[in-house]
Specification:
The complex is a heterotrimer of chains A (319), B (261) and C (275).
Chain A (H helix, E strand, L loop, with lengths): L1 H20 L15 H35 L12 H15 L5 H23 L3 H25 L2 H12 L7 H20 L1 H7 L3 H6 L4 H23 L5 H13 L3 H25 L8 H19 L7
Helix pairs in contact in A: 1-2, 1-12, 2-7, 2-10, 2-11, 2-12, 3-4, 3-5, 3-6, 3-10, 4-5, 4-10, 7-10, 7-12, 8-12, 11-12, 12-13
Chain B lengths: L1 E9 L4 E10 L4 E5 L6 H8 L7 E6 L2 E2 L5 H7 E4 L11 H6 L3 H4 L7 H13 L15 H14 L4 E5 L7 H16 L3 E5 L3 H7 L2 E6 L2 E6 L1 H4 L2 H8 L3 E5 L6 E5 L2 H4 L2
Parallel strand pairs in B: 3-8, 3-9, 6-7, 7-8
Antiparallel strand pairs in B: 1-2, 1-4, 4-5, 9-10, 11-12
Helix pairs in contact in B: 5-6
Chain C lengths: L1 H18 L5 E3 L2 H9 L6 E4 L5 H4 L3 E2 L8 H6 L4 E5 L5 H9 L4 E4 L5 H14 L3 H23 L5 E6 L6 E3 L4 H8 L2 E3 L8 E3 L2 H7 L3 E4 L6 H7 L4 H4 L3 E3 L3 H4 L3 H17 L5
Parallel strand pairs in C: 1-2, 1-4, 2-3, 4-5, 6-8, 6-10, 10-11
Antiparallel strand pairs in C: 7-9
Helix pairs in contact in C: 6-7, 7-13, 8-13
Classes of the chains: A mainly alpha (319), B alpha/beta (261), C alpha/beta (275).
């Protein structure tokens, strides 16, 4: 077990190093001792914030993905499948159309909250079971996506490309203010989720079992959903809709570290962060100076990942 | 111990439980039997606080159960549903340890005392050898031992089981029922829905025969399992004899097709 | 008497064009329109696109957009000539008009200052005012020479970063008239050594080149995000960030070109702070 933990830590360290050193300039260790003002500017104003953003987004999406999978007892659950990301993308599209690009992060956040509100409201009023909640999320996604496409169709040309970038996941342009808020909020909420790991362990074996073991299902689920929503909302406002991180990282973590949530959520946080730092670095260096939206790479990885599992035919083991 | 007074429950339109009242003494092994749809599982869930009746009172040791905080109730009453439908690949040890949650609390780690209890239970149920195996890799019989083991770590004074052996073969059925009887003998009150009338007859100290949401008959196996009761409730002709080894009533079903010969 | 008669006949012939019907022109885009106005032929425009300036559109018919001109509308106006450009308009529309027997003119693609002037002369030639066109060009060149003399005195040329678009970050290289305008105005395009026309750059590249002045086209709130990242460059530190009219890029005329050069010169060397 110890070696696995060190592996994870090393993974993070390597990702951070890669993220900081790669770009138009390649910063190796010796160079760090003779930095020109330009180098310092690049490192401090561009790379460091970007690495931080990639970390916190990856961490947030991974940890919420794992919690959602436990709460809904569905290994395919993720913020996207619950319509959270759909609502956020609607918020982004609205912000772009109205022309208030500075407010886009807030709109994304509100959109995410809106969709989770709908899901929560429906499940409370109608006492939805978990499969129904997921269906609702899928339905919401379709609805929101078509609204987004409609908005894009009537949008002006200049707005189109920047909307596209945001919707596919892109960490190049985010306000630093939101980054600082995001880091603090996401970290605090994640710590809470990690400490509550036992609760999610119990919920994952059944609602009735959970009640019998003394957990107030209604409160815990609502609380978890709400926290996930805030985290995802912040992630989306920083980097747009980045898919598959919340789906794939929890699976890989469970495979190597087991499903016990205290442990798994911590590892998810670190691995997810490192993973997104790496993919983002790849996204911005692979066809320099053009940047691929990072969502393209995570989507690609996610697709390959699931193909691999299917081909191996051992998908139940991955839970 | 348990006093149930005038329970009425409905999922929406019709009443599934109609004005149910009965008592359970400490140390009893109560078997709840009845045809499909008679309300057996619903009654269990009401007792386990998973479903709330719209009318009536339930008292546990003279306390209204809804006045007891859920975390405290979990230390008194433990429930095992008929199926645990999903779980991540927890190991047997991890899974059984989850039963200690009411004692460790939300943030608590397992203390040595908790670990000791888990150890004892693993031994008691002879699943210590499986401790690092994934629960889902085990056979049905072994899995059921794991689930019951988890319930035991809750250290509740009342255990509620929903059809604990219905999906097991005859060998495993008896093994599990023996284990449950052992638990009952150690002083824990057991309430169980049983599908198989003859198992109920053998193992339970008291029976509750439900029919269409009401109590049709209440008492010992001899009192409840009569061919008249069974015919009335299950709408099928049966013969009831005494089991030559145990003296308990034994039900022989008579397939209608054989009757016409 | 004969002399007077000859003179009268000659006079009639030369003044006939003046009495004849004025030329009816349909413009297929603001680029054409602006150049026509410069030639003094605004009154001759009977149809133009929805993208043209409001003042010019008064009293004229809208014939559609750059990409979708309404062919029927154009034909109904019975124009003498329809003028389009290789940039803005699609070949198929031009072909359709030709098939309907309408005279068309398509201006070449526009990359350098020479192209702007060449197209302008072509317009002049086709529309019978070659002289006026050449005069304007001469005037423009004179003004340019003027500026060149002034800027020659500046010892250190200012380093300019020109932003065509923010996302992705687009700038101009060697082979465009924007680069030329910057040069005339006494500046140096930080990417002016790249042998391309328009291309994207990374923010890190910009930081490395450390521009002293930044020019952009349109106000986008997202800019703040870019300035945050460029905050250590001289341009952002000294708040030397300016914007210019986008029409200069989209619809340049020889005159608007030299006007831009003069404006740029003012921004580079004369103006104080702007954001």
């Amino acid at each position: 077990m110890k070696t696995k933990y060190t592996a994870v830590f090393l993974f993070l360290v390597l990702s951070v190093i890669a993220g900081l050193s790669l770009g138009t300039e390649f910063y190796t260790l010796p160079r760090l001792f003779s930095l020109s003002p330009t180098d310092k500017s690049i490192l401090l104003n561009i790379r460091a914030p970007r690495v931080l953003a990639a970390f916190i987004i990856g961490a947030g999406l991974s940890i919420t993905g794992a919690v959602l999978q436990a709460i809904l007892r569905n290994p395919l659950a993720e913020s996207y499948t619950l319509g959270i990301s759909g609502g956020a993308s609607l918020g982004i599209a609205m912000g772009v159309i109205i022309g208030k690009t500075a407010l886009i992060p807030s709109f994304a956040f509100i959109g995410a909250l809106l969709s989770i509100f709908i899901v929560l409201l429906a499940s409370i009023k109608k006492r939805f079971s978990n499969p129904t909640v997921i269906l609702l999320g899928v339905a919401l996604n379709f609805l929101f996506s078509s609204l987004v496409l409609f908005i894009m169709a009537v949008a002006k040309n200049e707005q189109f490309q920047s909307t596209m970038f945001r919707l596919i996941g892109d960490i190049s342009y985010f306000p630093y203010q939101i980054l600082y808020t995001g880091i603090i909020v996401i970290t605090i909420l994640s710590i809470f989720l990690i400490l509550s790991g036992k609760v999610y362990d119990v919920i994952s074996i059944g609602d009735e079992k959970a009640v019998s073991i003394g957990i107030n299902i209604e409160t815990e689920k609502k609380l978890a959903l709400f926290i996930c929503c805030i985290i995802v909302g912040l992630c989306v406002s920083l980097g747009g809709i980045i898919g598959f991180v919340g789906l794939v990282i929890p699976h890989i973590t469970r495979f190597f570290f087991g499903p016990s949530h205290r442990r798994a959520l911590t590892v998810n946080f670190i691995t997810g962060g490192g993973f997104l730092i790496l993919t983002d670095t790849l996204a911005r260096t692979i066809i320099r100076p053009l940047e691929i939206p990072v969502g393209v790479i995570t989507g690609f990885c996610g697709g390959l990942f699931f193909l691999a599992i299917l081909l191996k035919g051992r998908y139940t083991e991955m839970w | 111990m348990f006093k149930i007074e005038g329970i009425n429950f409905s999922y929406g339109k019709d009443d599934v439980l109609k004005d149910i009242s009965f008592e359970i003494q400490k140390g009893e092994f109560l078997g709840i039997i009845g045809p499909n749809g008679s309300g057996k599982t619903t009654l269990l869930k009401v007792l386990a606080r998973i479903l709330k009746p719209y009318r009536g009172k339930i008292l546990l040791e003279n306390e209204e159960i809804y006045e007891i905080p859920l975390s405290e109730y979990a230390k008194k009453v433990a429930y095992l549903p008929s199926m645990i439908e999903f779980s991540f690949s927890y190991t047997v040890e991890e899974f059984v340890s989850l039963g200690r949650f009411p004692y460790t609390g939300r943030y608590g780690q397992l203390k040595k005392s908790d670990r000791d209890i888990v150890e004892n239970v693993l031994e008691q149920f002879e699943i210590g050898q499986y401790r690092k195996r994934k629960v889902w890799e085990l056979s049905d019989g072994e899995k059921q031992r794991v689930f019951i083991a988890q319930v035991i770590t809750q250290q509740a004074s009342v255990i509620i089981l929903d059809e604990p052996v219905s999906h097991l073969d005859i060998g495993h059925s008896f093994k599990i029922m023996d284990i449950i009887k052992e638990i009952n003998r150690s002083g824990i009150t057991v309430i169980s829905v049983l599908h198989e009338l003859n198992l109920a007859s053998e193992y339970c100290t008291k029976l509750l025969l439900l029919n269409k949401g009401s109590i049709f008959s209440e008492g010992t196996a001899e009192e409840v399992i009569t061919y008249q009761n069974i015919e009335k409730v299950y709408q099928t002709k049966v013969l009831v004899y005494k089991n030559p080894h145990t003296g308990k009533p034994y039900v022989f079903g008579i397939p209608a097709i054989l009757l016409t010969r | 008497m004969k002399k007077i008669l000859c003179f009268l006949v000659l006079f009639l012939f030369t003044s006939l064009p003046a009495v004849a019907e004025p030329l009816k022109i349909v413009s297929l885009g603001p680029y054409i329109t602006e150049n026509l106005c410069l030639l003094g032929l605004e009154k001759n425009i009977v149809g133009l696109t929805i993208y043209d300036r409001e003042e010019i559109k008064k009293g004229k018919e809208i014939i559609g957009t750059l990409l979708e001109p309404n062919i029927e509308k154009i034909v109904s106006l019975k124009p003498d000539i329809v003028i389009g450009s290789k940039e803005g308009n699609r070949q198929e529309h031009i072909e359709k008009l030709k098939k309907l027997g309408i005279k068309t003119l398509v201006l070449d693609q526009l990359f350098t200052f020479e192209d702007i002037c060449k197209n302008f002369i072509t317009l002049g030639e086709t529309l019978n005012c070659k002289d006026r066109a050449e005069e304007i060009i001469k005037e423009v060149n004179k003004r340019l020479k003027n500026i060149e003399n002034i800027t020659a005195k500046e010892k250190k040329k200012k380093k300019i970063f020109f932003i065509l678009g923010f996302k992705p970050l687009f700038t101009t290289g060697k082979n465009t008239y924007i680069n030329k305008a910057i040069q005339y105005a006494g500046g140096v395009n930080i990417f002016g050594d790249i042998n391309k026309k328009w291309f994207s750059v990374s923010v890190e590249d910009v930081i490395k080149k450390n521009p002293e002045i930044i020019i952009f086209l349109t106000m986008e709130e997202e800019q703040i995000l870019l300035w945050e990242r460029l905050k250590d460059t001289d341009a952002v530190k000294n708040k030397k960030i300016f914007s210019i009219e986008p029409t200069v890029i989209g619809s340049p005329t020889p005159q608007s070109f030299v006007q831009t050069v003069e404006n740029l010169y003012k921004m580079f060397y004369l103006k104080g702070n702007e954001n």
